[in-house]
From TrEMBL:
This is Alpha/beta hydrolase. One of its GO terms (molecular function) is hydrolase activity. Residues 29-135 form the AB hydrolase-1 domain. It holds the Pfam family Abhydrolase_1.
Length: 298
């Protein structure tokens, strides 16, 4: 196996200038990662460490988020066009395996619907559901309140009381600080992420209209409920809503596996964020990804 290499920079794609990180092993399978809502690619730190010896890894921040620039109004078609353009601009060859967590998992489904020729398969880690559901969408609506609280904290010079404790507890110190500075604690980035969420209905409509039923994918679900962290977290997202969202996600994921012959489903004993942000959960997720890469996908 070749020595792993790391390159960071910005790249111009249609309608955006994207901040990216290229890591891993040149010539190995190419994985392109979609971040969860509002997050920058530092969220994948533990996953990168596990997968870098075995794959080439391209991380990026969607337009407007985490230092990436949005240069034209964002559209559903633009999200996939930018995703497809980035590997080409960087001179990366071969089919892409898209990997996303949470809202990033939904983005992977969008790309499978809109640019299937670019993708070999997708790996979705506890993704936001492809269709509307009152319990799930009630949680998504809390994002507007969360952004308002975070921007108030920024104006008052207060710590990031929503994401700060969890990020500092889960990620290495340097990566946690960067993530909070450029994305989940950055006013302009949070505004862009909130605007991107405004495309949710159109994203779901595009998936429903175009997603091929036999597209190959791995769906990794959370096996435990995410309990709100801290007093403010419990005020913004109560435990009852968190459990309803968890149970709904599990049911929708199993239903999707039954309806989609190309979808493999597995559950790991970690919560929604712990599958990627937590060290142990990320190791388990990475092991599942590696097993998928090494096995037959046809």
């Amino acid at each position: 196996m070749q020595e792993t290499k790391i390159r960071e920079g910005v790249a111009d794609v249609p309608g955006a200038r994207l901040r990216y990180r290229l890591a891993g092993t040149p010539g190995a399978p190419l994985l392109v990662f979609e971040n969860g809502w509002g997050a920058s690619y530092e969220m994948w730190t533990w996953i990168e460490r596990e997968l870098a010896p075995h794959a080439q890894l391209l991380f990026y921040n969607r337009a407007g988020i985490g230092g990436s620039e949005l240069r034209a109004p964002q559209t559903v078609a633009g999200l996939s066009a930018q995703f497809a353009a980035l590997p080409a601009v960087l001179g990366l060859q071969g089919p892409v395996i898209a990997v996303g967590q949470s809202y990033g998992g939904l983005m992977c489904s969008l790309h499978a619907a809109q640019i299937p020729a670019v993708l070999e398969s997708v790996i979705e880690i506890d993704p936001t559901p492809e269709r509307a559901h009152p319990h799930v969408d009630a949680g998504l609506r809390q994002i507007h309140r969360i952004v308002a609280v975070l921007k108030l904290c920024l104006r008052l010079g207060l710590p990031n009381v929503v994401f700060g404790p969890a990020m500092k507890k889960s990620l290495p110190a340097a990566e946690a600080a960067t993530l909070l500075r450029v994305s989940l604690g950055n006013g302009a980035s949070l505004d862009a992420a909130r605007e991107e969420l405004g495309l949710l209905d159109d994203i779901r409509a595009a998936i429903a209209a175009a997603r091929p039923g036999d597209f190959q994918r791995l769906l990794i679900g959370a096996g435990t409920v995410s309990e709100p962290d801290g007093v403010l977290g419990r005020l913004l997202v109560n435990s009852g809503l968190a459990r309803k969202t968890f149970e709904t996600n599990q049911a929708l994921q199993r239903e999707r596996t039954q309806q989609d012959p190309g979808c493999r489903y597995m559950s790991l004993p970690y919560d929604h964020g712990g599958l990627v942000f937590g060290h142990d959960g990320a190791r388990a997720t990475a092991a599942a990804v590696l097993a998928y890469l090494r096995g037959p996908r046809a």
